[in-house]
Amino acid sequence: MTKGTGCSILSALQDLPSAPWTALRSKMEKHLQVISVLQWVISFLAMGAAGTVLLIYMFCTDLWVIAAMYTAWLIFDWNTPKQGGRRSSWVRNWTMWTYFRDYFPIRLIKTHNLLPSRNYIFGYHPHGIFSFGAFCNFGTEATGFSKKFPGIKPSLATLAGNFRMPVFRDYLMSGGICPVNRNSIDYLLSQNGTGNAVVIVVGGAAESLNCAPGKNSVTLNNRKGFVRLALQQGSDLVPVYSFGENDVYKQVIFEERTWWRLAQKRLQKIIGFAPCLFHGCGFFSSDSWGMVPYNKPITTIVGEPITVPKIEQPPRDMVDLYHAMYINSLTSLFDKYKTRFGLKESDILHIH
């Protein structure tokens, strides 16, 4: 082949239409986004149970030595989640999380600076079904939390029962996720220096039972424990609201006092999370039903911190005062940004 012929071929290849390749790449990226989201959903629902069953099964095989070694490690490492955990910047920066972010997409918006010399309790609202915004923004670096808030280390708090599950507990800790119990949060806010931000999804399982597309409501009126904890530790309160968190799944919401709602609440008390009857779309088609969430935008707004004094035994009226201040701050945050993210000026935040 002559040089001229080679140049002609290269020139011809460059002249080929790029549209098919662009379409193929876009399709592949979309599939990777779906896979990245679906793996988190399946991991959250099944990894703990699957890890437990696998560990028990391995004791009945020739691999029992490995199972015994892991169990010994599990016993030795049992209190680690309550003592700051074992986060991995490598895991938090996995490329997979950028695909997770881009599927919805998820955005993190900073409204005020946070001082590394202070500790914080972020109140995250609403819960949604899986709190995708909370996980992506605070359990990974996909939206650039550390760059937006230099010197602040976020720790997303979730059900303590998840940290009793082999393998799954380590997966959660690698993202800086911690148990939502008193010992764990106290450690982070009092024995881990400053610059810590514990993220609590305040509404919890009860709130998830009432989430639905287009619904702007939070369970907060009787949730004062996080305020009391902030006062005891002298940690500033930061309201956080995610527009779109409730839009990614459709849910059957049962009326109060019906048999189904009573069953849901009963199971919630037993297992710690709410058994919601929800659906998204299928893996291959958005027109079918499945476990994949709908790709609706989620925008998380981190509000202005409320300076909180340290009072080891705060009286009830002091807790009520800061709780009221927090509600006012959250409502103002919602009202300020609602029209920018698809809501009408007349829409209000319902607080229960």
From TrEMBL:
One of its GO terms (cellular component) is perinuclear region of cytoplasm. One of its GO terms (biological process) is triglyceride biosynthetic process. Keywords: Acyltransferase, Cytoplasm, Endoplasmic reticulum, Glycerol metabolism, Lipid biosynthesis, Lipid droplet, Lipid metabolism, Membrane, Transferase, Transmembrane, Transmembrane helix. It is a multi-pass membrane protein. Its EC number is 2.3.1.-. It holds the Pfam family DAGAT. Belongs to the diacylglycerol acyltransferase family. This is Acyltransferase. It comes from Oncorhynchus mykiss.
